[in-house]
Design goal:
Layout (H helix, E strand, L loop, with lengths): L2 H10 L8 E4 L6 H8 L4 E6 L2 H14 L5 E5 L2 H5 L17 E5 L3 H21 L5 E7 L14 E5 L2 E7 L1
Parallel strand pairs: 1-2, 1-4, 2-3, 4-5
Antiparallel strand pairs: 5-7, 6-7
Length: about 170
């Protein structure tokens, strides 16, 4: 995600996240979780499938002095999500605690596994407490029918991406 897009998304989501939990579903560098923690979130939980990237995330969290606020799971988040909400029990979340969910998968994944991504997002939507915030990145050409239905998505274009933002 480009820097200007990330800043715009943070503003769309409200800019501050006191006492929230950030879930970065396709972490990459985990910059979205780091940014959310810097804006008041008490914890960032990041999912990254690549071992080398998880090590880098942990090193960066340590360098930034936030390693106590970042939990890194090296796993396939689509597979992990099939066990929601039971899998979330391990995080000992409070029922009233706001979730901020970022879903920024590689664009090619929307083509190869778009229906799986849609199903995964539906699981997260259903598990998240009321008031939780969602930010989903899609390539500009990705069909919007891959987003879960029945949700009032605010769609913004930030070429070459589109961002879909919603509050539960």
């Amino acid at each position: 995600m480009k820097d200007r897009t990330r800043e715009a998304v943070m503003s769309l989501l409200g800019g501050k996240f006191p006492d929230a939990i950030a879930f970065d579903l396709f972490a990459g560098t985990a910059v979205l979780a780091f940014e959310t923690v810097s804006r008041g979130a008490t914890k960032g939980i990041v999912f990254e499938i690549l071992k080398s990237a998880t090590r880098e995330i942990q090193n960066n969290a340590k360098t930034l002095g936030i390693s106590d606020k970042i939990e890194v799971l090296q796993t396939d988040v689509i597979e992990w999500s099939s066990g929601l909400p039971a899998n979330c029990e391990r995080f000992k979340l409070r029922p009233e605690q706001l979730w901020v969910i970022f879903c920024s998968p590689p664009y090619a994944l929307w083509e190869s596994d778009g229906q799986k991504l849609k199903s995964m997002l539906e699981l997260w939507w259903n598990a998240a407490p009321t008031g939780s915030l969602f930010a989903v990145e899609l390539e500009e050409a990705t069909p919007l029918d891959l987003l879960p239905e029945g949700i009032d998505w605010d769609i913004r274009l930030y070429r070459p991406a589109r961002m879909a933002v919603a509050e539960k």
